[in-house]
Amino acid sequence: MKALVYTANNEVSYRDEPDPERGTGDALVRIDAVGICGSDMHAYHGHDPRRVPPLILGHEACGVVEIGTLEGQRVVLNPLMTCGVCDDCCGGRSNLCRHRELIGMNRPGAFAERIAIPERNLIPVPDNMDPVHAALTEPGATALHAIAMAERVLHRPIAEARSLVIGGGSVGLLAALFLKSHGCRDILLGDTNALRRATAEATGACGVYDPIEGPQPDENGYDLVIDAVGGERTRPAAVTAAKPGGVIAHIGLMDSAGGLDVRKLTLSEITFFGTYTYTTVDLRATVKALSSGALGSLDWVEQRPLADGAAAFSDLDHGQSAAAKVVLMNT
User: What pLDDT is recorded for position 259?
Assistant: First the structure.
């Protein structure tokens, strides 16, 4: 089969790879659409020691089951494989399973014509759902999981929250769209890429700002801050923007350096929490939101052939794409 393979730092190659081998309980899925994630870019730059080349990356995928009990069914992949029996799995927190593995990291990913994956990791989607939209399920569930966690600790309903989203990639933009769908009326999103800011503003979900130049978010002005970047510069910006008694949801994994003003967190009773991926319930809820139109037209996604994946990675690396998400298609 053909696959896009991470072969060296700043290099992915479209080439022939062995067909996937099904293990016990695995289905074989023909991939239709797969998104490029920020973590794929992180690996591309050689910044993720867990992803060792040569490796087929990609975990935001939609396809059709070719072999398995769901044969012929269009599905999205839950890329997070867990043991299913530990306390976290049984307690509804499977994303925290200590034995978890991720396609595109611990085993071959979805930048390929086909993938073998446990059948329990398949989530059916409506037959008429655009596979490009379905491929947004994984980043959408990441955003929804963070918002669900924030709702548990906010002092007032999220519809009343003044919200700030840092980062205009797919997770950040989908967070803004989910916030709007939850009734939130005051949302501001920041991104350093002017093209992405224009894309986010065009959705009508939020206002936008440039974190480098121009007016900045109000200090102590936001009930909820979502850091979808997770960097040494965005963490202090999140703390600065948070109101006393506010909430900061830290999603991004850009780096692990400092940046937290723990004195302000303490004196202002700001809740700061990390949020990692999603559960199967989050993924199912996201499929419903995407397919129902609750998150808008989703016309901000850019489609490219999988064979042109190397150019797509390069364009994203150089900030030359206005899209919050580039989805690679098997055509």
Answer: 81
Sign of CA dihedral 317, 321, 327, 331: negative
Same domain, yes or no: 173 and 51: no
Per-residue tokens: 278: 């999603």
Query: Tokens for 216?
Result: 């900045």
Give yes or no: residues 115 and 54 share one domain: yes
CATH of the domain at 77: 3.90.180.10
* 189 in the same domain as 263: yes
Into how many domains does the chain fold? 2
Alpha-carbon gap, residue 92 to 206, rounded angstroms: 32
Mean pLDDT of 53-57: 97
Q: Cα–Cα–Cα angle for 222, 227, 231, nearest 5°?
A: 130
Residue 289 lies in a domain: no
Q: What is the model's pTM? A: 0.96
User: How far is it, in rounded angstroms, from Cα 2 to Cα 66?
Assistant: 17
210 and 234 both lie in a single domain: yes
Strands 26-35 and 114-118: what pairing? Answer: antiparallel
pLDDT at site 257 = 82
Find out whether 192 and 170 touch, Cβ atoms under 8 Å: no
- What residue numbers bound the domain in which 318 lies? 2-136+298-329
Helix (H, G, I), strand (E, B) or coil at 119: helix
For tokens 């960097």, what's the residue? 231
